[in-house]
Amino acid sequence: MGFIKRSLDIPVFLEIGEKTSYEVPAIVSRWNLKFWKILVLDDDITRELAGLRILRDFVSDGASCQEVVVSDSTHEEVEKIRKIFHEGLFDLVVSVGGGKVIDVGKMVAYMENTNFISIPTVPSNDSISSPIAVITHDGHKRSLGAKMPTGVIVDLTIIKDAPIRYIKSGISDVISNLSAVSDWILAHEMGKDRYDTFAAMISESSALNLLGAADNDIKDPEFLQVLLKGLILSGIAMGVAGTSRPSSGSEHEISHAIDALYPNRALHGEQVGVASLFTMYLQKNPHYEKVRKLFEKLDLPRKTEHINVSRKEFVESVIYAPRTRPGRYTILEHLDLKPQEIERILEKLDL
């Protein structure tokens, strides 16, 4: 038998620290990388926050750059930017912004088979480093395979000024990994899926590290480092597994169902957080009590009303949830709960 090895799809480099957005070309150079034609994506807010400055820094370093302000994470926006990419023949796409800007950048880089650097300005979900992009097509959000970042650069001076709601959303998204991994184990035990212990360990440890570090001051730089590392590891776990399984289970099915049935009610992390309190209870998850207490301590969204969804709507979302991921086996498919059972559980948990 020949030599056996495993190829992992992970970023080439990762930089987390103060003022890192002021030294982007230098960071790239330290990794012996050089790009000559760079497409910088940002939005109306992040272009002034960091996008234009980063573009100017690349130009000063000798690169030819163009900026595109992303309006939304839609199929139409991706296609518009692909046309610009073709005209410029860029060798690097850089996204400076939140989830929508990053998802569009990942998608363009994936479809054009080029390099991609993620520079997040809010820590609201694990799109920072995942090989998944959420793109709206024909009015429906779709999770699509996309480009794993070549590099991730996090500037804590920017992140700590992010709205507190987005930080809380990121916390909930990382913690939801505990629900996702439990579902993955269940699917494996039932013969419904292959389980990757390595990827699951990365995903679960990112959540447990955050669970152990959580304090009342969630804007503390040390805590933000743990949160950002958790979000990044969550995305990397998906790259290692070659599937979203390590970070997406029944709780994400419920969130996708809410998006489909009742769009634009809350942030992604907020929805999966509330859903996780429900699914972890169903799973008899050993971390359920710690997670419930954490949500109370940090005042994270923990009731359906906190995500602008009524209990009736949440029940309908749970029933609809399996349709969002056909073929995926989770605690929802396993228990096949009836509406009355879901209502009783919501009442019992005061969700």
From TrEMBL:
| Pfam families to which the protein is assigned, alphabetical | Fe-ADH_2
Concerning CDD domains, the annotation shows: G1PDH-like (cd08174)
Q: Which domain of life is it from?
A: Bacteria
Keyword vocabulary terms for this entry: Cytoplasm, Lipid biosynthesis, Lipid metabolism, Metal-binding, NAD, NADP, Oxidoreductase, Phospholipid biosynthesis, Phospholipid metabolism, Zinc
**GO terms (BP aspect):** phospholipid biosynthetic process
Q: Does the keyword NAD apply?
A: yes
**Residues bound to glycerol:** D126, D173, H252, H268
| Record SUPFAM superfamilies | Dehydroquinate synthase-like (SSF56796)
Q: How is the cofactor bound?
A: Binds 1 zinc ion per subunit.
Cofactor(s) for this protein? Zn(2+)
Residue sites binding NAD(+) per the record = D42, G99, K100, V101, I102, D103, T121, V122, P123, S124, S130
Q: Name one GO molecular function term.
A: oxidoreductase activity, acting on CH-OH group of donors
Q: Which InterPro entries match?
A: G1PDH, Glycerol_DH
Identification of the protein by name? Iron-containing alcohol dehydrogenase
- Native species: candidate division WOR-3 bacterium
Source taxonomy: Bacteria, Bacteria division WOR-3
